[in-house]
Description:
By secondary structure, this protein is an alpha/beta fold. The protein folds into 2 domains: 2-122 and 303-320, Nucleotidyltransferase, domain 5 (2-Layer Sandwich); 131-266, 2-Layer Sandwich (Nucleotidyltransferase, domain 5). It has helices spanning 37-41, 48-69, 89-106, 115-126, 165-175, 183-190, 215-227, 233-261, 279-291, 309-320; strands spanning 2-7, 12-19, 28-35, 79-85, 110-114, 133-138, 143-150, 153-159, 268-272, 295-297. It has a 5-stranded mixed sheet, sandwiched between helices. Helix 2 (48-69) packs parallel to helix 3 (89-106), helix 6 (183-190) crosses helix 8 and helix 8 runs parallel beside helix 9 (279-291). The longest helix has 29 residues, at 233-261. It is globular and about 60 Å long.
Amino acid sequence: MKVLGIESSCDETAASVVCDAIEPSKRTLSNVINSQINVHAQYGGVVPEFAARCHVDVIDKVINEALSIAKCKIEDIDIVAATACPGLIGGLLVGTVCAKTICAITGKPYMAINHLEGHLLTCRLCYDVEFPFLLLLTSGGHFFFAEVLGVGKYEILGKTLDDAAGECFDKVAKMLGFGYPGGQVIQRHAENGDPGRFKFPIPLQRRPGCDVSFSGIKTAVKLQIETLTNLNDQDKCDISSSFQQTVVKFIINQLAKAFKMCRANPLSVVVAGGVAANLALRKELLSFASKHHLQFYAPPLHLCSDNAAMIAWTAIERHKAGFPVSPLDSKTAPRCSLSEI
Ligand code: KG4
Ligand code: ZN
């Protein structure tokens, strides 16, 4: 089967055709992403109204390009899937109305997809990852640990009490004058910095459970920056490095607690979301997994951030697991949790 996926929940307009080939490397037939980063960079973050308008401007071109790269016509598509929650409502409406319209005209079935489930299942698009696995989902807007028992069977073990990790990277990048988005720039500066120069506190060490909080680290970085007069390039690299190391250590500490909370025996550790592109984090996750005799899977870098291949793939997974397609009047919502699936 072939699915056309559409993603427009934040600042990427994306469309992709994915099929259910047995060989993971043969599944993604096209994966087109039109990023709006240049539009939002000057404002230091995503401006929802501009994002929605940019999606409207390009969505038809992006879909046509995805079909053409996949050498398909709309008649060859079995299901049209779109991100229906969570995200910025203007963008979500552009994607879902577009998908529903295609379905209304062609009679193809529509499937509403949860963006977080898309990130969560990305590794299964790319590799033969078996259930159950221990998941770390870390993006610009979300952070949680979950035990993934099967498609649609997600036990949330812990989540953020305030910011998401990506948000924290972005805010620290802004404090250092790096612009938006900040994750990659912090990582690049961290490579030339001394991770031991500044000591930032690791939060929630004595708190039971595996929830996380990043606002304390963010404030500690802010206070440190305020003590440095004439912040030079080396200071910025050292702050980036010390900050990144603290975040990674904290995540690994909490992951260890999440692992102990699992009721099934996870076979692997899987990471997903934009922050999964962070190489320091990937290195420590791999080391954690090896220490506990688990496999470790991370999506290829281009599938860590928002894309439509993960949305199309989730539709295939849900269809194969026996979940129904969605009615054309099914809702599009800015907020919804995985537990609603
Ligand atoms: O998953 P994503 O593309 O969008 C959401 O659904 O939120 O994640 C974007 C987030 C941004 O906060 C960005 O700064 C962060 O992922 N990010 C990184 C890296 N690359 C992207 N954070 C740390 N290190 C990176 N290399
Ligand atoms: Zn995302």
